[in-house]
Every structure is written in structure tokens, then in C-alpha cells.
Amino acid sequence: MTSPEPTTTARRAPGGFPVVGIVGGGQLARMCAGPAAELGITLSVLSESPAAAAALVVPHAPVGDHTDVETVRAWARGCDVVTFDHEHVPLEVLAALVSDGVAVHPGPEALRHAQDKLVMRRALTGAGVPCPRWAAARSEADVVAFGDETGWPLVVKTPRGGYDGKGVLVADTVDDVRDWLAAAAERDEELLLEEAVPFVRELAVLLARIRAHLRQHEAGLFIGRQAFFLPVMVHHHHRFSFMISFGVAALEETAGNSYNLPWYWHCRLPPDSAFSTPNS
User: Fold this and answer.
1) What's the alpha-carbon Rg for the chain, to the nearest Å?
2) H helix count then E strand count, the chain
3) 142: which of 87, 151, 157, 254 is 20 to 30 A away, CA to CA?
């Protein structure tokens, strides 16, 4: 018995249920598999390799280069909506999908904020969201001036490509930043400087909105069907592995009305925004 020829599009479930395409076959795409099956939604994952986390559990997971416009375009033709597992999809690739009429959520404009921490900081600060004091730096003089203003040590970050400690430096003096400044200059980029903020715990918050049902209130808030899930507390361990717990008492201990703050700031952001809620 011979194996069937591979198909270029996912097999659609009967009843008109959608095919949701996910660029990237990482752990987040994998975690969508169970809920999607329960909802009757078919997933199609554009995977980095046959051994990627999501490719091991999602039946339709063709291997392709997410940076190649034509590869992504061809795959997306079989999807009703496209989203992504990671923030490293080039904006021009997503823009090409939008120009083809593909529904992409979040859209390219929103993804910019997840790809570039300086873009995100400027947007959050402009929206009035509380942030640590921060500045963009290109020179040693920029670093010294910020350190003298906020105090040392500083937290230095590469705006793009960093995650879970990668691209993050705690600097006690400007000497610690010198090599990072040189590397950023070669890429014609700035560094993000932040004041070092002592914190008790890290909280993770998830909110969901139905874009079609949102309307902008006269006060500037976006009102509509939204869901605000209970915050969870993140426990960090060796090598950046972590677990979460529903620490309700800890939340009350951290901030009296912290439950309402994520909802309020989320309502201030445009419908197609993608931001991480600031940690408490």
C-alpha cells in the first residue's frame, strides 16, 4: 500500500469551520492543537522542520521558510485566517498577505510592537501606560547621562531579537555597555536603556477581543466584547524554565485594584494591537 500524495492545503472539516493558519511550529502553535480540535477548527502550521513541536501533533504542517514571501503566500491560500507562533515573521511578508486579501491577525502594524522594544515603549508611553524610565542610546554619552539621571545599574536591551534573558544586560558602568554599543552601531541600531526596577513577582495577563464588535467610545476607549482572564504568577527557575500558578492572594498583596488596570489599558489600544501587559 502506497502513501497518499501530500496535499498543499489542509483538509477542511465539514460544516464550514475555518482553517486557521499559524506561521511557525513552536510550542504556542502546539498548544493550539487541542482547543482547535474541540472547536472543530482545522489548523495548518507552516513549520520550520518536520520535528518542530507543532508539526509533531498537527496533521497539516508543511515545512517552509517563513521569510520567503512566495512560500508563505502559497501556503496561506489554503487558510481562512493567518496568525503566527513567533514575532520573527518579516513585516513585508505579512504585508504581502494583506495585499492578497488574506485575513492576518494581529496585522503587520501590530506585529511591529512585538518585534521592536523601542517601538513598543514609545507606543505604551504615548498611551499613558506606566513604564520604567527608559531611553534610546547610540553613544556612551547617552548611557552615562541616563545612568546619572536614574541611577546605576541600568538594564540594557537590544530592541530586536531578544527574549527570555537573551539580549538583556545589567550594566554597572558604561564600560559594560561599550561592546554592545559597538555592535549596535554596526547594525545602525539604538539600544534600549531602562532603569533597574526591583519587583516582587511577575504576573502574566491574557485578554481577548472580538475585533468586529469593538467601537470607540467618546472617551477614547475601545468598548465591545472582551474577555479578561485571571492573572497568573510566573515562577522562574534555572535556565529560564518556569511554571505558573493562579496566585490570587499574591495579586491582592501586590496591588489593590490591579485586576482593573490591564482591562483599562487594553481598552485604550486600537483593535489590531499586540502588546505585552507590563509586569507588576
Assistant:
1) 21
2) 9, 15
3) 87
Number of residues that make up the chain = 280
On the 0-12 / 13-18 / 19+ scale of CB atoms within 10 A, 215 is exposed
Residue 194, classed as helix, strand or coil, is strand
Q: CA 72, CA 43: separation in Å to the nearest integer? A: 15
- How high does pLDDT run on average in the chain? 81
User: Which DSSP symbol is given to 276?
Assistant: P
CA distance 64 to 48: 6
Helix, strand, or coil (residue 171): strand
Best-predicted range by mean pLDDT (158-162, 163-167, 226-230)? 158-162
Beta carbons of 214 and 271 less than 8 angstroms apart: yes
Q: For residue 211, what is the enclosing H or E element?
A: none
Report which of 76, 2, 80 is spatially closest to residue 40, judged by C-alpha positions: 80
Distance CA 211, CA 98 (A): 16
Instruction: Name the DSSP letter for residue 63.
Output: B
